[in-house]
Design goal:
Helix content is 31%, strand content 26%. The chain is α+β, with helices and mostly antiparallel strands and 250 residues long.
Length: 250
């Protein structure tokens, strides 16, 4: 039985709204720790993922579940849910509102639908199916490129970009006149898909960081350029910039 975008939208909107309030009370730094990969995790990450997993099991007991903090649940299903309980944990830990809850659904390992919940930004809910992007139920589109002087380019961690083999892309865009800001993680893609930014560059991504975002980015009419042939290192940009980015690639 196929699962429609409408059904996904209703479920993801409800599931993420149910856990959104748990991020609003803040978090003590003593509740945070470093994982083996040196990324930060908090007790809230575990709590949110557990609650969303429980909702998936209740509604879709035969589906697989892949989350950032718990082991993969393999039910040998064609459908796999992907959860990033707090995308932008460093922002969350420091009381910066630029974090979100990601929930996506893949079919045979292909991203099908995706969603972002932004608890501290009006609790906005974003969802997409690669053909449409909705923000609070209203269609959203990436902007049309006007000029490099008006081009807003984003990334999560500028040092990661500077120290990578892809730094010439970012530097090349700046040389052309683009403005650079580090409004990153899922918030950067939110700005791209709502027509406020032109380009988002992200490196060293895990599946939970990007799979829920792919249908949203495509649904807004933006392009995804795989820098190494995978979704681990990408540039997402307005369509008119795709050729420029590819010309700057190593």
């Amino acid at each position: 039985m196929s699962l429609s975008f409408d059904e996904f939208y209703v479920f993801a909107e409800r599931a993420t709204d149910a856990v959104s309030a748990s991020t609003l009370s803040g978090v003590e730094h003593s509740d945070a720790s470093l994982k083996d990969d040196k990324s930060v995790v908090t007790k809230t990450d575990f709590s949110i993922e557990k609650k969303i997993r429980n909702q998936i099991r209740e509604s879709y007991p035969t589906h697989n579940i892949s989350g950032e903090e718990y082991e993969f649940t393999n039910n040998n299903s064609e459908y796999t849910w992907t959860i990033d309980p707090i995308d932008g944990t460093v922002s969350y830990l420091h009381g910066v509102p630029l974090f979100g809850i990601l929930l996506g659904l893949s079919f045979n390992e292909i991203p099908l639908y995706g969603s972002i919940r932004l608890p501290m930004l009006r609790n906005d809910f974003v969802a997409g199916d690669s053909s449409v992007c909705l923000i609070n139920g209203q269609q959203a589109r990436a902007k049309e490129f006007t000029s490099f002087e008006d081009c807003l380019m984003l990334t999560t961690d500028i040092e990661r970009v500077r120290n990578s083999r892809y730094s010439m892309i970012y530097d090349g865009m700046i040389e052309k006149g683009s403005l650079s800001r580090t409004w990153g993680d899922c918030f950067g893609y939110y700005l791209l898909c709502s027509g406020k930014a032109d380009l988002m560059m992200d490196l060293d991504l895990k599946d939970c960081d990007i799979l829920p975002l792919i249908p949203i980015i495509k649904g807004a009419g933006a392009k995804i350029i795989k820098l190494d042939g995978t979704h681990n290192n990408i540039v997402a940009c307005v369509a008119e910039l795709a050729d420029t980015v590819e010309s700057l690639m190593p």
